[in-house]
Amino acid sequence: MMRAMIVDDELYARRSLEAMLAATEDFEVVSVCANAVEALHSIQTASPDVLFLDVQMPKVNGFQLLSMIGRERMPNVVFVTAYDQFAIKAFEENAIDYLLKPVLRERLTLTVEKLKRMVHDEPRVYDSPPIERIPCTGPSCIRLVDVDDVEHVRCSAAGVYVVTPKGEFLTELTMQVLENKTQLARCHRQYLVDLRQIDEIHRPEPRAAVLRLKSGHEVPVSRRYFGALKQRLGLRRDLKYVDPLS
Predict the structure, then answer these.
(1) Do 103 and 82 touch, CB atoms closer than 8 A?
(2) pLDDT, tens only, 29-59
(3) What are 103-130's pLDDT values in tens digits?
(4) Structural domains present in the chain
(5) Residue 214: which residues within 8 A CB-CB, separation 6 or more?
(6) Burial 152-187 (b: 16+ CB within 10 A, else e)
């Protein structure tokens, strides 16, 4: 039995598709989400085999959601849309199939047969767009943070935090996804940084470096990433430290 997840902002569409999937007896519906931010959390916890994904959703659409899922968590994808023109885009994204709303049982049967043949194959790679806005969760709201406003990102046992001039915000996105899908640079296993925000580089010890940002925040640099960071900043490879950065 395949583990299925439904993401759609329309209540009727979610309930209808959930009932049809259950009736096939080929699926266990492990999660039903009303938006992409809910889906990000559920993908981490529910580990679906198949994602039935609405294309058009407010704030973060289906194609943008794919940018935010790490490869190790990526399920097979079936796009669901009310607009036939999105079918071409769906196949450009390497989806297994697409379903037009309202979903017909006969059409869903064809999709199920495809999934049965392919669900145990290697997960597909989706050529999804760069992330422009990072969904962050708060006590009672979802905040979309522009990537250009991000100074740095830090992770800890409590989660991944996006740091901006307006404060820190918790996100479901992983450090790997943010590194791969934004211009943020890795400087430490637990930190990413916007290179434009670096004001100075300090070397308090031969094996340690610290970035002082324009805001006054300090971010550590590990030895592993120091050489690549200097190269991206256009500094000589033999340069040991720069203080202040010129």
Answers:
(1) no
(2) 999 999 998 999 899 899 999 999 999 998 8
(3) 999 999 999 999 988 867 776 777 778 9
(4) 2-118 (3.40.50.2300), 133-232 (2.40.50.1020)
(5) 151, 197, 198, 199
(6) bbbbeeeebbbbbeeeebebbbbbebbeebbebbbb
